[in-house]
Design a protein that fits this description.
GO biological process, one term: DNA transposition
Number of domains: 2
Distance between the termini: 23 Å
Largest sheet: 9 strands, mixed
Number of helices: 12
GO molecular function, one term: transposase activity
Protein name: Transposase IS4-like domain-containing protein
InterPro entries: ISAs1_transpos, Transposase_11, Transposase_11-like
Structural class: alpha+beta
Strand order of the largest sheet: 3-2-1-4-5-9-8-7-6
Order of helices and strands: HHHHEEEHEHEHEEEEHHHHH
Shape: elongated
């Protein structure tokens, strides 16, 4: 929370506390040396740690007053810890689930180095369910890698929903979506953005497909096409994306779909980017034991806590917090009533 971005920095922060601060954390006349702190943090169970800390944040975060048509949207995405190289040049890869409303990482699992994110999806669902208690009504938004029939079946079995992009890894489904009569389907929603010398228009069309002869993806209720038109320095580019969602039209209007699809970028812009830039994650070479996953979890928790306290600039928030050790100690040791 105070911006310590490595095991050594965490140790220095503890050693720099005054006597009162050490006492509040339960330390006597001595505090752990760097090697003790390192041994502890490289042996923790990262999945259990994530569950405990996510639950801790979850009970202390009061989400914004929900609008009438509120739905919890969780973005799923993976990130490679580029500095944490294992034997043989392998790298640690983590799959995370971000609550896009609160900015809290609900769950994070380590992807087996001999596999990929696909096999880690169900364990991630298990971890999310452990924190939330139930997945009923939750919408998971993921990239094309997770456009898997097994994922769709598993999510539906837990009474949740799935919104995924379709690309070349599902060629038959991609062709089915592309061949739908989009020219005859009216525009459902259109948004325009301007900034950084760029103008972008996002046009969304959606059509119900849960009928005999629909598309070949289990539990899909709607097919979606988004056309993005960008104008940068006078040059125009156009990109088309196809997606499916397991929510019917009555529960997922075009403007809802537009919003939910864009929320998937939150996990990249509001989490992974912050871990890289503010906490310099890709430069950190911790690779012993569970150390890489553990310190990533601590970074997630710090970011989530600052967001929960209203911060929009995490770098500035950590700089301010670094001078307020007693405030941070109070935050992690005080009892709070459950707000959710």
């Amino acid at each position: 929370m105070g911006g310590a971005s490595s095991f050594a920095a965490i140790t220095d922060w503890v050693h720099d506390l005054d006597e009162h601060g050490r006492s509040r954390l339960g330390f006597g006349d001595t505090v752990p040396v760097a090697t003790t702190m390192w041994r502890l943090l490289t042996r923790l169970d990262p999945s259990l740690l994530t569950t405990v800390l996510a639950g801790w944040l979850h009970t202390r975060t009061r989400p914004p007053k929900p609008p009438r048509r509120y739905r919890r949207v969780i973005a799923v995405d993976g990130k490679t810890l580029r500095g944490a190289r294992l034997d043989g040049g392998r790298q640690v890869h983590l799959l995370s689930a971000l609550d896009t409303t609160t900015g809290i990482v609900i769950a994070q699992v380590t992807v087996d180095t001999k596999s990929n994110e696909i096999t880690s999806f169900v364990p991630l669902l298990d971890a999310v369910e452990k924190v939330l208690g139930s997945l009923a009504g939750v919408l998971f938004v993921a990239d094309a890698l997770h456009t898997q029939t097994g994922h769709a079946t598993e999510v539906t079995a837990r009474r949740a929903h799935l919104l995924v992009q379709v690309k070349g890894n599902q060629p038959t489904l991609f062709k089915q979506l592309k061949r739908l009569p989009w020219a005859q389907i009216p525009v459902g929603d259109r948004t325009r953005d301007r900034g950084h010398g760029r103008r972008e228009t996002r046009t969304l069309k959606a059509v119900t497909v849960a009928t005999p002869g629909g598309i070949g993806f289990p539990h899909a209720q709607q097919a979606i096409r988004i056309t993005r038109t960008r104008i940068v320095a006078g040059r125009t580019s156009r990109e088309t994306a196809y997606l499916t969602v397991s929510l019917p039209a009555g529960q997922a209007l075009p403007r809802d779909l537009q919003t939910w699809i864009r929320r998937h970028w939150h996990i990249e812009n509001r989490l992974h980017h912050v871990r890289d830039v503010t906490f310099r994650e890709d430069l950190h070479q911790a690779r012993t034991g569970t150390g890489p996953a553990v310190i990533a979890t601590l970074r997630n928790t710090a970011i989530g806590w600052h967001r929960a306290t209203g911060a929009t600039n995490i770098a500035r928030a950590t700089r301010q917090a670094s001078h307020q050790s007693n405030t941070l100690i109070t935050a992690v040791t005080s009892s709070y009533p459950t707000t959710q």
